[in-house]
Amino acid sequence: MESPLHHFEVHTIIPIHIGGLDLSINNAVVAMWVGLAVIAGSFMLVVNRGVSPIPGKMQSILEISMEFIRSMVYEFIGEDEGKKYVPFIATLFLFILACNLIGLVPGSYTITSQIVVTGAFATGIFIMTLVIGFCKHGMHFLGILVPPGVPKIMIPLMIPIEIISMLARPISLAVRLFANMTAGHTVLAVLFGLALTSPAWVSWMPFGFTIIINGLEIAIAFIQAYIFTTLTCVYIGDVIKLH
Questions:
Q1: Which pTM value belongs to this model?
Q2: I need a labelling partner for 164 at 20 to 30 A (CA). Which of 75, 106, 155, 188 fits?
Q3: Which of 124, 146, 144 is nearest to 133 (CA)?
Q4: To 5 degrees, how large is the angle CA 233–CA 36–CA 19?
């Protein structure tokens, strides 16, 4: 039986090396391009057809998605401040969702199952929240390290704790998405392998579980995209409101 981790291996498709720098196109890059193409293509299709007062199926899906994302942003960031972040959060949510779902297609690749990818997302978001905080509040932003109501004698103890708590945010954000996508795909690979190698009279059992878990993975793809973007909104809201 093939290793269940085979799905997570990166294979070079077009080798490109420039000045000792590896810029090769691999299956992970292709999966990312497909995810971007699906999102951009969906919006371009609706726009090119013309936005109708009576929306079709595709327009309805996109409008419902954007309304859902806008509500999420307004809830955690606020309507006045949140308007400027709706495009970013929408792009983040739809891209992660598309990549999660593409990874469920047999023979494809799940880029969100790579800690390097989710870590890059989480680190970028963490740096962005720091920039937002300092741009909006200046050095007063450092007050986020001192929770309101803390006695002065406890401040030297609370500041290191708050720093560790803030540094843990990108780690937990990256690991949560990576671990969930990796675990689900590994279980699917193991069950499918068992279905292929088991005797015919028992192979229906792992195959049946594969179908069930595959349906569960579709739900997890949505849930993980939602959790990732929700936490992003929470972190942005925290630095804006200094909570």
A1: 0.83
A2: 75
A3: 144
A4: 105
